[in-house]
Amino acid sequence: MRRGVIVVVIALLVAVACGGSGTEVRVLVAGDPEELAAYRELVAAFHASQDGVRVRLEEVTDRDELLARLATSIASGRPPDVFLLNYRYVGRFVTSDTIVPLDGYLAASAVLDPEAFFDTPLEAFRFEGRQMCLPQNAASLVVYFNADLFEEAGVATPRGAWTWDEMVEAATALTRDTDGDGAVDVYGLGVEPELLRVAPVIWSNGGELVDDAERPTRLAVRSTAALGALRRFLELRKVHEVTPPELDAESEPAEARFTSGRLAMLMDSRRVVPTLRAAATFDWDVAPLPTLREPATVLHADGYCLTSGSERADDAWRFLEFALGPQGQRVTALAGRTVPSLEQVARSDAFLDPAEPPRSSQVFLDQLDVARQVPATAAWPRVEDAANAVLEEAYYEPGRVEAAEVALALLQATRGAFAEVAG
Fold first, then answer.
1. Beta 134-135 vs 302-306: how paired, if at all?
2. What are 156-174's pLDDT values in tens digits?
3. Is the distance from CB of 204 to CB of 296 less than 8 angstroms?
4. Mean pLDDT over all residues of the chain?
5. Cα–Cα dist 165/230, whole Å
């Protein structure tokens, strides 16, 4: 057989294996192995539901790799048809016209009704009145806790609303040298010194994160309320020493330390649930974020976006209708990965089944009333990166650091990112 014929045969075989060149929809997602397994289950359920459209998952391990893959594929003229991304990173794709507004698709859909979604995550993907992406989850920041460690230390587990001081008191009692060698074996709390973790503390203390939520030009971290919240956050490490020091935090991330049973509490979103269900050997549950003056948390919503360069837009929309409809959201809810953005599924046993940890999943739904979003402007990822570098250094730097100094450093570090878009 001649070389040209061989090439043609191979091409035909590949097309058949992929379900035909005109019907394959490429969907880019990121996550750890347990998260990716949930997306594979979703695709398998979609394939079982119909015969016409095939989906090929393009899997990467984290958000940075996903953004790099997106940038490369867009530049080469071959972007995925659909990608799944947190609302905080969508702004740059809106301003560059990389994604297609979904209002027309929604208006014509017999499957998806905007009124059926929780409004908080839906609003996070709305830009200047247009629905640019659709939320697949309505997650927020919560506190995971190891109930076995609480019981061993004789500390009452958090139930319902609790205060920041109560959390610090519990974390102090749970930070222990269990083998008597003079070194801490179990820390009371794990939290990343990042803007996304500081934001709800500022809101809870009555402050604001930015000067204008719609068109921010700077961080608003020099107010009395914001400074008080920033001080309380820094004190977790610098005064109370209830979180691991820098070397320990670098050698073992908080999620892994919690899973291994050497961290009593962990601030994180719903994303860790599949891992905990697979690996945790202790009794664990979730509690709302503690409050300073008023309840507050930060939204952690991911959404499906349809790229403007897709040649299979209608087929891609069929997948979105399934993934975001009751059947698809039930699949990902059962896997533990998401807080369903559809109220119908979120209030069903697929999400609230007490037999599946965390048994207090209702906490995620209750927190939607007090969940706020950070800005989703094109500049925001750069703002976060610059702010996180300042917060990490201040959090782990030896000796006392004044909140006012950190606030000033935050303003200086983020000024360029805000000015770049404003200019």
1. antiparallel
2. 999 899 999 999 999 999 9
3. yes
4. 92
5. 15
3-class state of residue 169 by DSSP? helix
DSSP codes joined into one string, 336-403: T---BSBHHHHTSHHHH-TTSS-TTTHHHHHHTTTEE----STTHHHHHHHHHHHHHHHHHSSS---H
* Domain 17-138+301-346 of CATH type 3.40.190.10: yes
- Which pairs with CB-CB distance under 8 Å and at least 24 residues apart come from 275-279? 275/32, 275/34, 276/144, 276/357, 277/34, 277/336, 277/356, 277/357, 278/34
Structure tokens at 11: 């091409």
What single DSSP character describes residue 128?
Answer: T
Specify which residues 130 forms β-bridges with: 127
* pTM of the entire predicted model: 0.91
Domain boundaries, the chain: 17-138+301-346, 140-299+374-422
Fold (CATH) for 140-299+374-422 = D-Maltodextrin-Binding Protein; domain 2 (3.40.190)
Q: Which of 161, 159, 184 is nearest to 359 (CA)?
A: 159
How many whole angstroms separate alpha carbon 297 and alpha carbon 141? 6
